[in-house]
Amino acid sequence: MDYSSHEEFWYGNCRERVGWFPSSYVRDQYLTFQILNSNPSIPDIPSLSYFPQSMRFLRAKIVQELMQTERDYVNLLQNIVQVTKFLSYQLI
Q: Which superkingdom heads the taxonomic lineage of this protein's source (predicted)?
């Protein structure tokens, strides 16, 4: 797995598949190894410049798409609330 500044998703590969994975499915093998060997040192997180430009661009596009999806979802919920209010006033 590769570093992700977002706590809920990590970008990486698993069994020849590449993509974003929920953090609940991800375990850092290096950190696990360190803990099992009782070594208190924790490795530094690599800087963003560590990743290729293409990966940073792809990540930015994915984040933009996620944000737009969330905005659309909020708009849908607001429309549902407005329709529900309208219908409740009609019944009174």
A: Eukaryota
